[in-house]
Specification:
- The protein has 2 domains: about 5-210, 3-Layer(aba) Sandwich (Rossmann fold); about 220-345, Aspartate Aminotransferase, domain 1.
- Helix content is about 25%, strand content about 15%.
- It has 11 helices and 11 strands.
- It has helices at about 5-10, 35-40, 115-130, 175-185, 220-230, 260-265, 305-320, 340-345, 350-355, 360-365, 370-375, and strands at about 20-25, 30, 35, 45-50, 75-80, 100-105, 130-135, 190-195, 250-255, 275-280, 290-300.
- The strands form 3 sheets. The chain has a 6-stranded parallel β-sheet with strand order 5-4-1-6-7-8, with helices on both faces.
- Helix 4 links the parallel strand 7 and strand 8 (about 190-195).
- Helix 6 (about 260-265) crosses helix 7.
Amino acid sequence: MVQTGLSKFIADAGKYRGRSIGLIANQSSVHGLRYSWDLFHEKGLKLLKIFSPEHGLFSTLQDQVPVLHQPGIHIEVVSLYGSSYDSLFPVKECLAGIDTLVFDIQDVGSRYYTYVNTMVFAMKAASALGMEFIVLDRPNPLGGVTVEGPVLEKDFESFVGILPVPVRHGLTAGELALFARDFYGLDMELKIITMDRWERGMAFEDTGLTWIPPSPNMPSTSTAAVYPGACLFEGLNASEGRGTTRPFEIVGAPYVDPYELAERLRSYGLGGVVFRPLYFMPAFHKFAGENAGGVFIHVTDRDAFRPFAAGVALTKALSDLCEEMKFLYGVYEFNSAHPTFDLLTGGSAIREMVERGEPLDAIADSWKEDEEKFLKEKKAWHLY
């Protein structure tokens, strides 16, 4: 079984007695299915505060909902996801008395996923205040070998992308922390407590660990496998499956003919995936209570499957087949400078190519150079 950073931290808890600790965590911060904050208390550690990310400590709230109230536990919980962009940063007053910040949240291996961005903002605060920052590393459920998608362009930074990495970056949270320290030139005491027995090509199911949903719409590793592509639907007037029992694996809209969409997707010849036509009715979120046509994304070979490419293929198919499909504009994760789709892809090129009706192969070729370059560069931050 893989031993997480938290497991090793708890085993060596005596080293940290006397520290005044702030913990950035949510319900995925477990060892032996027990929460880190309970274990800290049991080990006699001085845990002053817990800082929770988007969705809250127990992942009770949906996306982009301010976390203003937290369930009561024996430690004060401070939200790092409120109703403004400034709320994403831990303020000096909340950090008073803390000398060590610890980060332990399960990431899903995609640039969009906001928890590692919360980590980076907290690193900046720790650097400014001279605090030690400790990352308790966990597996990347998408593995640490494959990268996919374009690198985030300058001026397209947002809370769904602050580091210039591909959509699927192939790094762990600890490795991303090293990347962020170097990229921002942070002068800080950064410590990564690495995992034991994790290998870069390992599937999460091979780790022996239990998957704890890190957010309300990330119920399984199957969800994580499709997320780098299906999350693009957040930038469309189409459902990414929120409000169903299989978010991100189910996508579509009321204006979609599911058989026509599935046939178009089959014609692209994408590897490792089958698109099954279906109808669905979201209980909440987009098209709540409406009958929608779409597809279920069945991953048949994770090694061959390229989720971001599949998400772009879905977007192109909808654009070509359905004149009702639109790219969304407006406020998304506190940002209205660009269309939501552009914030997710990290630039405007893919959306513009889809709008011009360019072939899928040409669109996919547009990010190949980024992938090849980052594959070489990322080895500088590998810990495994």
